[in-house]
Amino acid sequence: MTDVTSAKSARRPHHWRRDLVELAALFTAVAVADAIANLIGHSPDGPFLLVASAVALIATAAFHTWWARRHSHAPPTTAARDTTAPAEGVGPDPSGDEPRETALWRMRTTVKDAPGSLAALCTALAHLDVDILTLQTHPLGDGTVDEFLLRAPAALQAQQLSREIAAAGGTSTWTERADAHDLVDTPTRVLGLATRTALDAAELPLALRQLLGRCTIRSRPALSLSGRPTGDMPPVEGVLEETVMHLRDPNGGAITVERPYLPFTPTEFARARALVELDARLGPRIPRSQDVLTLPEGNEITVRRADQGDVEAALAMHERCSDRTLSLRYHGPVGDANRYLNHLLSPRFGRTLAVQTASGRLVALGHLLWDGDETEVALLVEDEWQRRGIGSELLGRLVALAAEAGCDSVYAVTQASNTGMVAAMRGLGLPLDYQIEEGTLVVTARLDAVPVRPAIRYEQAER
Fold first, then answer.
1. Number of domain units in the chain
2. Confidence class for position 250, pLDDT limits 50, 70, 90
3. Which residues contact residue 427 at a Cβ distance below 8 angstroms, ignoring those fewer than 6 apart?
4. Could you list the residue range(s) of the whole structural domain that residue 335 is in?
5. Which tops the pLDDT comparison, 265 or 12?
6. How far apart are CA 133 and CA 113, in angstroms?
7. Same domain (yes/no): 278, 303
């Protein structure tokens, strides 16, 4: 016995009434035993009564043991305690040990800000045999938005789920299927997005999209290509209008986030503003990694990320390009090509890869541009360096970046006569869709097959 246990026993109060009751029970038991002994000893049927009493006692003990096992609070079985069950597809069956088909759902509903509102929702979900994996609350002025990640039986339909939630007090209920990526808790996901944004300014639109779900994000510069203001800029603190956010772009201009199918909550607005503020404090930045590749004829080229610091080198490349090359790339007057560069090289509108020679001269640019909820790829290769596989190398890397960013597809806009761009898109080995109208060709590649590899691969030189 430890000192702590002894100290607790020493402080325990002495109850004299309990001792008196125990003593009385002892005398009563002795009296009953003596009466039974006299009855059995003086009765001719005494031995039979003794045997019958023993049988009755054994039967009573057996019944008590059976009843206790049937109604005891047994610990959960191994299957019920298994926390490594798959997120979707197969889960434990509450009626037995056999696995069952399950599905993941994301659900958001609004309830009154009153005690018991959340409990009513949980009870309704329990009746549907639905397991709550995660829960977030978004306080509103007159209620609370509860966001759930649920594991439900595969046979459960969204309409039935919505009806039960409505009966439990939920309003404006929204549901959609989820996947294993949604199992990451919100703080971990937000920290990961903040890290990506800190490393690369081009990640901000992607981080906002992953933070807020399916939404359309557009960046608007402060000045148009002609130098005129593009419109009123939102205040520094931003503006929230139901399904639209207006945020001040740290690089100048505005960022508009739109999600028509689901209004934004003040909590989501605060998270988006925090990411934008982080981007503003860190300033312009891009990863400085680069690859040195050897072309088939033996020349070395360097592929790296580009930004607005490469505008002068890109302008010099424009001067060396023919009018046809520039018109195939920019689809407009050749004189306007130079005005696009500052916009295209901004990390806010996408990612740009540059190819430079051993002497440091810029000879090719590849752009991956965020176009709302779509993604465009575009290439420009200096005439002297065309037909050496540089375009295919850039395109393969851009599509790989798009797949890494979670894009479903990429599209290229060119002219029907641009056989080089069409060949490069076909060389990706991805499913392609073609649309042509009045000589303008739009080729869309669906990113179903990953990883993406360029049609022509080069030996990477050691640095």
1. 3
2. confident
3. 392, 395, 396, 454, 455, 456
4. 290-460
5. 265
6. 22
7. no
